[in-house]
Amino acid sequence: MEIDQYLGVFIEESKEHLQSLNQHLLELEKQPEDIGLVNEIFRSAHTLKGMSATMGYQDLANLTHQMENVLDAIRNHQITINPDILDIVFEAVDNLEEMVLDIESGGAGTKEVTALVRQLEAIESGEALHQSEAAAEDKTPEGQSNLLLDEFELAVLRESEEKGFQNFYTKVTLREDCMLKAARVYMVFEVLEALGEVVKSNPDVSQLEDEAFDQTFELLLVTKESKELIEEKILKVSEIDAVTIQDFFIDTYKHIQDAANGETAAAVMEEKTEAITTEKKAQQSNKTIRVNIERLDILMNLFEELVIDRGRLEQIAEEVKHPELHETVERMARISGDLQSIVLTMRMVSIDQVFNRFPRMVRQLAKDLGKKIDLQIEGAETELDRTVIDEIGDPLVHLIRNSLDHGIETPEVRRGLGKPETGTIKLKAYHSGNHVFIDISDDGAGINRKKITDKAINNGLITKEQAAIMNDNQIFGLIMESGFSTAETISDISGRGVGLDVVRNTIESLGGTITISSEEGKGSMFSIELPLTLSIISVLLVEIQKEKYAVPLSSIIETAIIPKSDIMHVHNQAVIDFRGRVVPLVSLKDVFQVPNVYEETDYYSVVIIKKGDKSAGLIVDGFIGQQEIVLKSLGNYLTEIFAISGATILGDGQVALIIDSNALIK
């Protein structure tokens, strides 16, 4: 078998399984009793082991095999999960990721993991088994195993947990001299039904109605109320001697029942359900195929050629005035428009591909820094062009690391400030028009305006006079200047401000912007605005003499016709007073050295552009109109052209250069 032809598929699928392992392990850390999660983790590890062995990466297969053995012991209740075991499994996943990355870069995927394998073997051999069994016994109060639950009742209890309800085992003892036991039971049930739902009772309801029990009966209650309130309500019923309320643990209950009776029908049902689910997933996966992004680029290029020919045909149809030709061209335009939409959609991927790496990263960094962090993610299903997705990951990593290190305070400091010990970092993505917004916010210390101002003055970035009139957003923007940092010590995580110029440059290279808002003591928010796709953008076509240029609409504030008499000069720079602001003017004819063809008039056509708090006016000879264009690269030979970010081919076959507004403002 020719291994190399499958290497790309192996790497892609390995990354997916590793991401699944990380995601489900994080969920398992919060819900250690959810055996369903363990089964998902086991399946990913099992598949990765088989793939690695087939491809001949033995170290990868051996480590995955040993991790798989530990997971198998956990799902068979031979080992109870604890933080130490989870830390070792997380470490194993980290090593697996390093091996896959080594393979991707051309290596053999080898790594010294003997010590880690021994740790996993020790866990599997049962060194922690005694502690696990003791913990299980402590966790399972006496009497709960008397309730015999069927699969439907267990499913109800599990679903209630997922929806935020609590399952309580409740034991009620009537007084010895109670005369009307059935009436008291009815009154207890009436109280509990008002607080939640009774799922099971022992004895059953008919026996309780017939008073076929001693003084004690048990039941399972699903509720959102507290134990204290439930106990208080029950004790208000007459002739109640005692009430015991305990948490009910589904998986522990099943483990005890399985140990007593062998494999129960419920366990068989669970395995069948898992098999059906796996089969359905396999069927669903067969409906999708992997397509190399380069093939999509080729498809896009071919489609762009089609658009050019379509534009030419439309011009010919107008000139010839042939009805049938005109009708055919119109139909072709509709079909090509639908095709364009499909091609662009094929390039769109969920931003979840970027977001899903952060929970694992935040967990590790929080442990390293001794902080408690709650990472909240919203809008992970938001879609972006694949080329944007590939570039945005590193800037987001840097912003989140800065929030963790320099934004969120330690638990001790937060307690002293009256804040919750656990800090919150929120990552939110959403669509708005033809743009995607990504907000990274935290409830930490915020940004100290005075500290930034002093540092900026010392570095010569601004003067004291400028600082006095700058607003907060302008001051906060200074932390994204090259080399600017307010960190008193340099850490491995980095302080807020380190490398933020790289973050800004990356985002601006994607045609996006980043803004900062902050309130000292309450937190900060970095808001990123990105174009939905880099392939097609909306532009304003302008004319400079006989040449056509395109200005991206995302950077335009408005257009204006300015009399020459309104132009002033300050320090040899042409400026205008535009809506109360002094805006510098840039003549595109001079910048691009366009030869004169037309005579100058008494008026200038001006495009007002903006980048952050800075603005400028671009002098052109005329406005053609708004249009959606396909962005084309200038190629490797024309990489250093000032103020030109690319080109497009118009419908009549002419080439229009796309202006880089950010470069002109700088």
Largest sheet report = 6 strands, mixed
> What does the overall shape look like?
elongated
Which architecture of the largest domain does the CATH hierarchy give at level 2?
2-Layer Sandwich
Average pLDDT reading: 79
The poorly predicted ranges are 128-140, 259-273, 278-286, 489-498
**Strand portion, in percent?**
15-25%
Protein described:
With 666 residues, the chain is of the alpha+beta class. It folds into five domains: 4-137, HPT domain (Four Helix Bundle (Hemerythrin (Met), subunit A), Up-down Bundle); 142-260, Histidine kinase CheA-like, P2 response regulator-binding domain (Alpha-Beta Plaits); 293-350; 352-531, Heat Shock Protein 90; 536-665, CheA-289, Domain 4 (OB fold (Dihydrolipoamide Acetyltransferase, E2P), Beta Barrel). Helices cover 48% and strands 23% of the residues. The chain is built from 24 helices and 22 strands. The chain has a six-stranded mixed sheet. The chain has a five-stranded mixed sheet with strand order 6-8-9-11-10. α2 (35-55) packs antiparallel against α3 and α17 (386-407) packs antiparallel against α22 (500-509). The radius of gyration is 33 Å and the shape is elongated.
Q: What keyword list fits this structure?
A:
22 strands; 5 domains; Four Helix Bundle (Hemerythrin (Met), subunit A); six-stranded mixed β-sheet; alpha+beta; five-stranded mixed β-sheet; Alpha-Beta Plaits; elongated
Brief summary:
The chain is α+β, with helices and mostly antiparallel strands and 666 residues long. Helix content is 48%, strand content 23%.
